[in-house]
Amino acid sequence: MKIGICNDHAGVEYKNAIIAMLSAKGIEMVNFGTDTTDAIDYADIAHPLANAVEKGEVDLGIALCGTGNGMAMTLNHHKGIRAGLAWDEEIGALVKQHNNANVLVMPARFISCEKALSIVNTWLGEEFQGGRHERRIAKIPVQE
Ligand code: RB5
């Protein structure tokens, strides 16, 4: 399992904690985020992660910014990405079970680091339920 992670200046501490936790579980982590608190633009960080997920260079992605919205909006412009914003464990579970999110997005300025770690563990531990949810996610891409 290989997971890409990206963050802007709002998510450095959270990113480091997630990398430490998942690396300790034997998951290979690829860091697309910034490692300093100097302000950067989230889209500059989100697109490279999205490209890596779409190309299969990583299996899944995790993204963090202040609200999570900038990352989610940018990531979801990519056809191969279903980025889901989660701020508690229940949403983290549902975004995998129902939406099969291949990128988990979290709002670093609105949840604790411990909460973020717990959401990551929940999301990774869940399975997509398929069935009616398969039909629903198939309708997400713009129909030409
Ligand atoms: C940065 O100040 C902030 O705008 C960014 O982290 C994010 O919340 C944007 O959606």
Description:
This protein has 144 residues and is of the alpha/beta class. 43% of the residues lie in helices and 17% in strands. The protein has 6 helices and 5 strands. It has helices at 12-24, 42-54, 69-75, 89-97, 113-125, 132-138; strands at 2-7, 28-31, 60-65, 83-85, 103-107. A 5-stranded parallel sheet has the order 2-1-3-5-4, with helices on both faces. Helix 4 (89-97) links the parallel strand 4 and strand 5. The longest helix has 13 residues, at 12-24. The mean pLDDT is 98. Bound molecules: D-ribose.
Which structural traits does this protein have?
globular; 144 residues; 6 helices; binds D-ribose; alpha/beta; 5-stranded parallel sheet; single chain
SSE diagram, text form:
Blueprint: E1 2-7, H1 12-24, E2 28-31, H2 42-54, E3 60-65, H3 69-75, E4 83-85, H4 89-97, E5 103-107, H5 113-125, H6 132-138
Parallel strand pairs: 1-2, 1-3, 3-5, 4-5
Query: How many E-type strands?
Result: 5
In which range does the helix fraction lie?
40-55%
Mean pLDDT across the residues is 98
Bound ligands: D-ribose
- How would a crystallographer describe the biggest sheet? 5 strands, parallel
Q: Alpha-carbon distance between the termini?
A: 34 Å
Instruction: From the alpha carbons, calculate the radius of gyration and give it in angstroms.
Output: 14 Å
